[in-house]
Amino acid sequence: MTEELVVDIIKKAFWTAILVAGPTLVVSLLVGLAISIVQAATSIQEYTLTFVPKVIAIALILIFLWPWTTEILLSFTRELFSLIPVITK
Is 89 domain-assigned? Predict the structure, then answer.
């Protein structure tokens, strides 16, 4: 197993993690920003007001993107399994 192969596997693992976690993090950020703007405009400082909409938005985005996320993870896993003969040399 060469150093280039290890670096390539790590790059692909990081890219897969970004692809899988990115949409959820972006949605959480946008919902949190929108709620913060509403809270600043209305002077309401309730902590559950930020938590509940974020949880709902994250649950919806996870349900909506489940097939795409599964395909990304399966593709990465298949690629790792195909590298087993190269790694064990």
Answer: no
How does pLDDT run along the chain (89 residues), one tens digit per residue? 789 999 999 999 999 999 999 999 999 999 999 999 998 898 888 877 888 999 999 999 999 999 999 999 999 999 999 999 988 87
With respect to residue 14, please indicate whether it lies within any of the assigned structural domains: yes
Amino acid identity for residue 84 in this structure: I
Number of domains in the chain: 1
Please tell me the pTM assigned to this model.
Answer: 0.80
User: C-alpha 2: how far from its chain's center?
Assistant: 29
Yes or no: say if 41 and 19 are a contact pair by the CB < 8 Å rule.
no
